[in-house]
Amino acid sequence: MKPVMISFLALWTLAGSGCIVGEIRDELVRINEQMQTIDGQLTELNERRLAALDRMASIDTSLTSIDDDLTAVRERLGPIQESLESVDGSLVSLRQTINNIDSTIPFLRITGDDKEAKEQLDEREAEQQQQREERQQNPGGGGDR
Q: How buried is 72 (Cβ within 10 angstroms: 0-12 exposed, 13-18 middle, 19+ buried)?
């Protein structure tokens, strides 16, 4: 009876270990399938990343072109800005001369401005003068990115 029992125990151990091996094999198959799924997802993600990089490179090229265009426009507008500031100065001077004539000869009234309009005009002229002085102190400022 002892040899039968030992044989039975040996068979049971081998059969039980085969069950464990089968479970390990099943688990490895499941893990392999998951790894294939993850690999596919990573491949797709990498393709989307490369497409995004291509779009970013295209956008960078466009932005460089726009920056070059804006620099060229700024260079062309520089002399125009100087001319406009000169005209502003001349117009302010002319306006002050006309106001002086109006105040010296009250019955002449060249401007037709009432006191309130004249005060508003003086305030605008002072603001414009302050802006011109700021631009002269800080040339090229205000247009920087």
A: exposed
Instruction: Return d(Cα 76, Cα 68) in angstroms, integer.
Output: 12
What is the pLDDT confidence band of residue 12, given thresholds at 50, 70 and 90? low
Q: Is residue 112 classed as helix, strand or coil in its secondary structure? A: coil
Which residue matches tokens 């990115």? 145
- The pTM for the full model equals 0.44
Token pair, residue 21, equals 């091996």
Distances (CA, A) of 133 to 1, 76, 94, 95: 117, 22, 19, 19
Backbone angles phi, psi at 42, to 5 degrees: -65, -40
CA–CA dist 22, 15 (Å, integer)? 11
Q: Please say whether the dihedral angle defined by the alpha carbons of residues 65, 70, 75 and 77, taken in this order, is positive or negative.
A: positive
Separation between Cα atoms, residue 98 and residue 121, nearest integer Å:
12
CA atoms within 13 A on the CB side of 107: 0
Query: What confidence tens digit (pLDDT) does each residue in 47-92 have?
Result: 999 999 999 999 999 999 999 999 999 999 888 988 888 898 888 8
